[in-house]
Amino acid sequence: MTERRIRVRFAPSPTGPLHMGGVRTALFNYLFARKNGGDFLLRIEDTDQTRYVPGAEEYIVESLKWCGLVPDEGPGFGGSYGPYRQSERKEMYAQYAQQLIDSGWAYYAFDTPEDLDRLRSEAETAGQVFSYSQHTRRSLCNSLSLSPEEVTERIESGASYAIRFKMPEELDVTGDDLIRGSVTFNTRELDDKVLFKSDGMPTYHLANVVDDHLMEISHVIRGEEWLPSMPLHILLYRAFGWEETRPQFAHLPLILKPQGKGKLSKRDGDKLGFPVFPLLWKDPETGDISRGYREDGYFSEAFINLIALLGWNPGTEQEIFSIKELSEIFSLDRVVKSGSRFDPEKAKWFNRSYLQQKTASELAEYFQPVLDSKGLTVAREQVVAIIDEIKDRCDFVADIWTNGYYFFEAPASYDEKTVAKRWKPETPAEMEAIAGVFESVEPWDATSIKEQFSTFMNEKGWNFGGVMNPLRLCLVGGNMGPDLFRICELLGKEEAIHRIRMAIEKIK
RNA sequence: GGUCCGUUCAUCUAAGGGUUAGGAUUCAAGAUUUUCAUUCUUGCCAUAGGGGUUCGAAUCCCCUACGGACUGCCA
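ok -> structure tokens follow
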């Protein structure tokens, strides 16, 4: 029990894209492993052949890589406890199920899915809930209700059967959850879960316990939705005689919808305008596209940072952390117990913080594809200079274009409100005069432009605001943007003058 | 319905018997920016309700309310 190597696993089922909650589970496992000098493994729980979704496993792996949560062991990652895909471990589970039958912890159940469906709907119409348990098992079709001869006969004649756990009667099972403390269940309320399916595959419960044991997992860190099955798992370890090395459990709180009730689901993101998946996902069946944080322009560091702080906090007032820092200070006892609502606004703020930390030259690298996609060729030096001017008004790389497109192409239209407010009858003549002044400005840099512009303005006795605002309108198409003289400089003399004259033509 | 988990500003959270209940996001106001955004300053806003225990409770106990998860030959 002491000196045990820390080994944790992230064990998703490849039934679709990895959800934010899943990423956080992976992250906490990863951080716990790093913090304690242990191993982080990826295990694919693909025991349900009916829910197989092509591309899901690849998606999971790509997501983990994008987030920087690279497993130490896993399918495609090496490790000496493999295989790490449960479908490839299929053969090992039968013997463990058999072991439980032999020791009286499990039994054969011959009821067909149709039988059970019928029982469930009958119970429902009677306002009850059917459960296959110690209270009903004797009246159902299984090796506890049938005679040994009948059981043997059925099995030998090839009848299909499942193997169910024989839940003990009237037993308090207490689990010590690392996040919630001790939680007690009485087996009287628990049902006889299927451990081994008639298709020859184990269910989650069996496969999970067997694999965690075989892979020497020390801590099971998973979502709160698994808390109700903790007593079953504890009993399974007991039944197998593995209690000495049973992993410790930690059940993470859920991530809730931003508004309303319930946990975050795929639909919410599409409805509320933010992604719930790390990467874009295209449903192979329907072709539906779900957006991803990566494609929405989030930096993976920001994504990890914001997810880490959902349900965990360092106990200090620091909020910005690299994954490296998190790896050094993460601890399960600072995980909160209650579910947390995801706040898209704060997510944006995190991304902004990361963007602001980057240099203009780094951002130019991220921004280049945007220019490429628009077929624009701009000198890197110029791009860096432009980003330097507008960076502080951006939350995302894409905002560089939104907030600074006018540096790359002339405004196609002029903001109506601004025109109405700033474009006076005398404006065209004033603009033409400014264009004239600009023609003689040398050298063409912000300081000189400002100087000569000001001199001219003072000579004329014109009101600065009355001229600067329409001039801005000419150059950028609205009332936004950085220092006007810097814009002029970056645009170049010829372009600036051209835009003024173009605006005189086009406005009104 | 049953079992289990949870409940501090609108949101993420701090405070593990003694603080004017702190920070962050959002929002609002002011300053700066001859524009807009940024930035800065300030402000608004919380212990679900009721009982205990205690000199003293957000913190411990009980009840209620509300929220959530689970209740599949899914994971």
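Residues 253 and 339 of chain A are 5 Å apart (CA to CA).
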